[in-house]
């Protein structure tokens, strides 16, 4: 028997999931929707191998998937499906399709590529179609729908603007949309819930969360300050999207209170169970440490 085997006779019997449970980290339903900005298939496949269990749904780039080699796009969607991660297209291509008068062709393409869901919105265009008609067209092709709330170029939200967005969101939900996404663009500054310094408007965020609930409303959090601000405010249950693939693990250790900046927050810090009593005979913890 080698020295390594002698020193670690139980290698492979201790698991990260058991340890996290021991220190009080709860099991969390996936609540992060990462963003593929146009990575090559191999890179995406590697991220799925590492982090698929943390992903609620994968957003496939902006319109990058349309100009990339089609076989690569299909390979990426197939890889997500293999890992049981649903996929959604960004709202930009939807808006262009509507503006150009070719929504049916766009929906046909999305269905053929194999994505699970499309994102609809009016972030930089105006749409004269009814929510019910759009959703009917999408569902007839086997596509789910989510709707993005907010304009990309109108700056931070106002009181009246939030009221109007809540009413708009409710119309889309009533028509059959599954989720609502709150706009933040790539900067999370001077747009949506964030002012020109990137500070989160907590009162507006609360209005969306209280009206729709975390299962339905998803907050765009494209950078570290926006991610941390939303998690600090709402706690681990908040649903974040537009998180870059390479940042998903950082977001998830923060969500679990394992990041140094999160550990001091009561709504994120793990609450460790009381340790088991020690045996006076063996002085070993009476707690199962490894699987059979």
What does this structure look like?
Helices cover 40% and strands 12% of the residues. The longest helix is centred in the middle third of the chain and has 17 residues, at 159-175. The chain has helices at residues 3-7, 16-22, 41-51, 64-67, 70-82, 91-99, 103-113, 131-139, 159-175, 202-212, 224-234, 248-255, and strands at residues 32-36, 58-60, 87-89, 117-121, 144-149, 179-182, 217-220, 240-244. Residues 280-292 have low confidence and may be disordered. It is built from 12 helices and 8 strands.
Query: What gap, in angstroms, lies between the N and C termini?
Result: 22 Å
Task: Tell me the radius of gyration.
Answer: 22 Å
Question: What is the count of β-strands?
Answer: 8
Globally, the shape reads: globular
Helix-strand sequence: HHEHEHHEHHEHEHEHEHEH
- What share of residues are in beta strands? 5-15%
- Give me the oligomer status: single chain
CATH top level label: Alpha Beta
Count of DSSP-assigned helices: 12
pLDDT averaged over residues: 90
How many strands, what sense, and barrel or not for the largest sheet?
Answer: 8 strands, parallel, barrel
Uncertain residue segments: 280-292
Q: By CATH's scheme, which homologous superfamily applies?
A: Aldolase class I
Question: How many discrete domains?
Answer: 1
The structural class is alpha/beta
Q: Give the CATH architecture.
A: Alpha-Beta Barrel
Report the CATH topology name.
TIM Barrel
Strand order of the largest sheet: 1-2-3-4-5-6-7-8
The share of residues in helices is 25-40%
């Amino acid at each position: 028997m080698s020295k390594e085997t002698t020193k670690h006779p139980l290698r492979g019997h201790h698991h990260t999931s058991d340890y996290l449970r021991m220190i009080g980290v709860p099991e969390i339903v996936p609540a992060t929707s990462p963003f593929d900005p146009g990575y090559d298939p191999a890179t995406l496949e590697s991220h799925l191998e590492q982090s698929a269990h943390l992903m609620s749904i994968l957003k496939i780039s902006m319109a990058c998937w349309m100009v990339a080699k089609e076989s690569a796009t299909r390979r990426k969607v197939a890889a997500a499906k293999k890992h049981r991660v649903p996929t959604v297209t960004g709202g930009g291509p939807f808006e262009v399709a509507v503006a150009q008068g070719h929504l049916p062709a766009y929906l046909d393409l999305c269905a053929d590529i194999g994505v699970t869901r499309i994102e609809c919105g009016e972030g930089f265009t105006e749409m004269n179609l009814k929510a019910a008609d759009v959703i009917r067209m999408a569902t007839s092709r086997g596509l789910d729908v989510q709707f993005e709330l907010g304009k990309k170029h109108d700056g931070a939200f106002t009181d009246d603007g939030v009221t109007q967005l809540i009413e708009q969101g409710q119309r889309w939900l009533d028509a059959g949309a599954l989720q609502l996404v709150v706009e933040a663009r790539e900067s999370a500054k001077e747009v949506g819930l964030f002012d020109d310094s990137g500070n989160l408007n907590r009162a507006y965020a609360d209005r969306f969360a209280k009206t729709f609930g975390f299962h339905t409303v998803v907050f765009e959090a494209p950078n570290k300050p926006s991610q941390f601000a939303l998690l600090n405010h709402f706690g681990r249950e908040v649903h974040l999207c537009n998180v870059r693939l390479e940042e998903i693990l950082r977001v998830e250790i923060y969500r679990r209170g394992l990041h140094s900046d999160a550990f001091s927050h009561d709504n994120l810090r793990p609450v460790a169970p009381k340790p088991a009593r020690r045996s006076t005979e063996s002085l070993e913890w009476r707690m199962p440490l490894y699987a059979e």
